[in-house]
Design goal:
This protein is an alpha/beta fold and 466 residues long. The chain is 38% helix and 16% strand. It folds into two domains: 141 residues, Aspartate Aminotransferase, domain 1 (Alpha-Beta Complex); 276 residues, Type I PLP-dependent aspartate aminotransferase-like (Major domain) (Aspartate Aminotransferase, domain 2). The strands form four sheets. Strands 6-12-11-10-9-7-8 form a seven-stranded mixed beta sheet, sandwiched between helices. Strand 1 and strand 2 form a beta hairpin. Helix 14 crosses helix 15.
Amino acid sequence: MYAETGSQWNVAELEDAAHRHLISPAEEMSKLGTSGGRPLFTSADGIYIRDSHGRTLIDGPGGMWCTQVGYNSQPIADAIAAQALRICYNSPWYSINGPASELARRIAAFAPGDLDHVFFTTGGSSAVDSALRFMQFYNNVLGRPDKKAIICRIDGYHGSTHLTAACSGRAGNRPNFDLALDNVSFISAPNVFRRPRGMSEEAFLDMLVAEFEERVETLGPENVGAFLAEPLLASGGILIPPTGYHRRILEICRRHDILYISDEVVTGFGRCGHWFASEEVFDIVPDIITFAKGVTSGYVPLGGFVISDAVLARVSGENARGSFYTNGYTYSGHPVSCAAALANIDIIEEKGLLAHVREIAPYFPEEIRKLGELPLIGDARGTGLVACVECVTDPDAEEATDFDKEVALRVDRYCYEGGLIVRPIGSMCVLSPALIITREQIDDMMAILRGSIVRVQDELKAEGRW
């Protein structure tokens, strides 16, 4: 049993409870129940977070790409409390609530094109799962039961439900799970850094587009229901496609009546300086956009998708054929979550955070790219407020090595000691700070990251390992 002392939890009892009873995501099972694992965070404010040892750190990953307006927001806390006292829950199967209705209106207002209807879920995984299930429903209603194949990308990540995990091409998420589905087909990641040696970026773009078109032809256009793509591959390593990639893929989808689902769980709600990145940054208006994370700045769970009226028109009204889109969740459009999202949107608007990101975004990737001058860094890339450095110990290796991944973890450890949390993903160290970050705070982040990389370089040389 844990206890409270004033406003602080009893740290020792909480850590013991975690070791004895808690299973965390991506749990290394050989270490289950052992001490010395993940840190315990106790409080946070703005872009800073404090651990149980009293250390204050810059939250470089912004939680999990989601703390857009920063920690300790009184307006969001007040909105959550007020809504919980007004009406904490309604059954979405039989009724609607005010916050969900207003939030749907607000999201539809800034979504691109004719994406004008919103379906709410509990998070990113359920948002993408629901969008894919809509594709299945859509084609069944249209009398096309075979048009269900989903084309995804290697290194893409879309969630942890069975369907979304099956559509996720990150190799590390797949071992020991039965994720092979006959109707899911993977094409190459748009990884400009790892493109074939000697190939120009323009030729690489042509190769990627040709591969997609060939896959559609191989599967049969009559069998392909959706292309599922993050505008930039986030957990796959901040992979930013060549300019024009999404536009050319969309043209092929339009030609073959394939739904284009843009997974903006990471890039939505300001991460790239706009409410959604699909149109403003990547020059497309997809059929469906999925969202989560930044919609509430991580204060409470919420996700969903926003969908084109033209798509809906084909399976609604006189075209419904007696159908019901029966997919849903107990907590769809949860009033407290939607109230938090509305307060979050108000803060983003009142503080001008989208404009702030657009103003500061050129500086952030520019400072990241400067780290690419260090010998240990093979590539440094980013856009908006999301970026990474990729550790490369063997320039001749075509893929990241186990040693590269070990090195990245060492950089991560030294960053933590220096006061910065980074997210290690394979050989990469990833940053996606809160939208409120200042230029001076970016400088602090870069100083700690640079110092940690240099420290690792010096140690590897001293150890004779590099």
